[in-house]
Amino acid sequence: MNVFASVDMEGITGLVDRQFVTPGERFYQRGQELMTNEVNHVAEAAFAHGCTNFIANDSHGKMNNILIEKLHHRVQLISGEVKPYSMMQGVDESFDQVFFIGYHARASMPGVMSHTMIFGVRNMWLNNELIGELGLNAFLAGYYDVPVTLVAGDEGACKEAEALLPNVVTAPVKTAQSRSSALCLSLEESKQLLQLKTEEALLKKNHSPLKLKGAPLLHIEFANYGQAEWAALMPGASIESGTTVAFQAKDIKEAYQAMLVMTELAMQTTFC
């Protein structure tokens, strides 16, 4: 049993604002410890229930947050950037299941530090289906016929997963009180929940990959027109209306990389 885990940071228990997820901020080192711990809890349970190969892809920020020196000794780590497929770097048809750990709700939705890739994105669609990072990543896993079987994160992310992914197992480790506060499970409670839900995901038999119908049409709505202008500089992209940029892709892999380029370009916008 081969497991690929995409590990974000905003959905880890106890992490409630940018001080925990931003290098140089007051609580960032604590955030790294807690993030690494949650990967270890999931991996420990996975190895105990049939997993033989577990690869974790650090999927937050500069993607070098997980502390390899404190990581479970059997977990292999994909760390650093630039990655051609970002949060899903390394996934392919050799995997049996995909786990999302530390995930958050999409932009414009309630949830702890909710966003989609960058804070300049308001909404994102694939073939008119409103999605966030979770959905986009699940569709890329589906390209390889690999189902997303476990989603751990805040309650908003878990609800988003349940609406999109039939039979997915979710592990809500905190519940938003606002975008920067949460009711968090204790470390022991979150460990127990993560390990229980990991076992359930691995033993469940009716998972199915999330598949796109037809060539994907990507739309990204940005927060301001300057961001849309920058994003539309990518060949094949155009401003469709307002601050929404469209891109017709040949497959989900091309759509995924188009999203990466468009959001990177959008971040060049200044506000002075």
Automatic annotation (TrEMBL):
Protein origin, superkingdom: Bacteria
Entry keyword set: Aminopeptidase, Hydrolase, Metal-binding, Protease, Zinc
In terms of SUPFAM superfamilies, this protein maps to:
Dipeptide transport protein
| Residue numbers annotated as active site | 115 (nucleophile)
Molecular function GO terms recorded: aminopeptidase activity; metal ion binding
Binding residues for Zn(2+) 1 = 8, 10
Check the record and name the Pfam families matching this protein: Peptidase_M55
Q: Which residues bind Zn(2+) 2?
A: 8, 60, 104, 133
**CDD domains noted in UniProt:** DAP_dppA_1
Q: Which residues cross the membrane?
A: none
Q: What is this protein called?
A: Aminopeptidase
